[in-house]
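Lecture 7, part 2: worked example. A protein chain together with zinc ion.
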Amino acid sequence: MKKTHVLLFVSIFLFLSCNDDKNKKSEETMTENPLLSEWNTSFGVPPFDKIKSEDYLPAFREAVKIHKEEIDVIRNNKEEPTFINTVEALELSGEKLNRFTNVFFAVSSANTDDVLKEARKTIAPELTAHNDEIDLNTELFNRVKVVFKQKETLNLSPEEMRLLTETYKNYVRAGVNLEGQNKERLKEINKRISELSTTFGDNLLEETNAFELHVTDKKDLGNLSASLIAGAAEEAKKRGHDTGWSFTLQRPSINPFLQSSPNRDFREKLFQGYALRGDNNNENDNKAVLLEIANLRVERAKLIGFDTHADYVLADAMAENPKAVYEFMDKLWAAALKMAKNEQKALSDMMKKEGVTGEFRGSDWRYYVEKVREERYQFNEDETRPYFEFTAVREGVFMLANKLFGLTFKELKDLPKWHKDQQVFEVLEADGKHLGVIYMDFFARESKRGGAWMNALRQQSNVDGFETPIVTNNFNFPPPTKDTPSLLSFTEAQTLFHEFGHALHGLFSHVKYRSLSGTSVPRDFVEFPSQVMENWMSEPEVLALYAKHYQTGEVIPDAMIQKMNKANSFNEGFRTVEYMAAAYLDMNWHTLKEPNSKIDVRKFEKDFLKKMGLIDEILPRYRSNYFAHIFSGGYSSGYYSYLWSEVLDADTFNEFKKTGNIFDPVLAKKYRHMLSSGGSKSGMDLYKEFLGRVPEIDPLLKKKGFE
Ligand SMILES: [Zn+2]
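Predicted complex, written out as structure tokens:
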């Protein structure tokens, strides 16, 4: 359920608004543009030291031009369509553009500046338009169709067959088969959804920024950490106050306040402010916007030939259909809800014990969780930081990769980087053979977006020779200070293992085609290789390898680990329930069978949650009116994916445990083999090959304490 991802560029950029062509650069310098020239660097890494921010936009335009020419050659080919001259040719086209987008989106996410920000506004919609032009091109599709119809007679390898069927399917899913009025309507729908998604996001941002809770009495801050207090004081200044502290509806601001402030009224004000974003019946209200999106999506699904939008989306996922998603979630819901109700009892008892009268409210939840944790477990997460010095954690993840797969890591100090703080490593096989390169960028800074993520600078492929992968990991860890190194919290250390799991997925790739390599897998599979790594991270055997006090070298004491695990597992019911309520809402909005503009959005949500038995003190992690993942991001009918991936990771780690050796070499080899196939087979087929059976949910139930 962590919110760290591999970047899903395509889905993210589908939803950006259009921008005018305002930055036409001269083309005479094109031959020298380092983004377009040959890269004569070690391992062919991008020449970051030579690339200037001003180079991106002209390189993009040129790369698109080259791709269009390549597409025209395929489209206008006078020969009969074949697998090679059409399907594979499409796959291999756009090499320069792909190389460009890899570098551009990596750098503009991790080390941006004003020029890059502007370029991104221009490039994102132009790239979407360029891709649409290819995906809705009837002549190209007709050629693909000819090949597809002969597929049984072509003697294709399994991977070539996969490329052919995926290519064909993508065209059909884009709606290329539609004709006349229907095709026009599809284009209208796509355009309208794209506009509405932008509006939804803009409204949400307005509502989030408009809200402020200004605190003037220091005792209302409770035990907030010094850095958060300093941040709130800065926010107050920014908002024109001479003194005091301002809290906003951004998660890093609201959550610590709800956990720390003893002022019930303030907590309630902040909590309600958060819950009502986009639902205030003002000009930024999102209810009509999201209803129109949901209605347009079902209309589009039906045009293309599916019953509902969820059927359309899930046909491409490991779960395959809405029924499977509901059945899977229903298995967890009752147990999670029961656990959450028990937690609520403990919390309201604690509140009474403190002498606070009145009903226990949703806004009290996080505050009393901390109180219960303190009383029951005497645990404070900050105690663990000295044991998770960031270099030690990095070494820990490298040692784990060595124990499981025999990999070693050699730092490459002289390679060009996008920022001086980056660390670059060559990844070597047990026999010393080169596997790939990983760029790691650890610390928070202004030029980096929030969160943690992985992406590829070069995807593995093997058409004209084997191209080894180059991947990146990006984090927002606290930078070291003059006196102390960067000390991670347990959760941050977990994030390092998580992202490294995505990196391994990219590094282990061993396929022919780029579009089927590495992390190019369905959304409900992609978090599996990352989440599974978190299991090893907290095993005593693994902690002993790396979790050592940065001053004394003492290994983290068992007693502290046990205390930590117990403290972390309290509130698991709440966490699962608030997440699942949102995942159910997502599915409900996207299993509408007909457009229906009469739906009352609030009532729709409320009736459903009541039917599920959700208690009033828990809100869905996202209410419909601010559920940006599904209404302005690429996660519609996909929010369940995190939990689905958790089933796979718990099941997999349980298999390791069953062997009696969490580094079992035989199982590790099979696991690696599964990852090496990337997206060249379906997620379920990969899993069945790996363990010889379908995934089992019991290990997850056990892990969450739901049995
Ligand atoms: Zn992830």
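The pocket of zinc ion is lined by residues 4-5, 498, 502, 527, 530 (CB under 6 Å). Residues 317 and 399 are 33 Å apart (CA to CA). Keep this in mind for problem set question 3.
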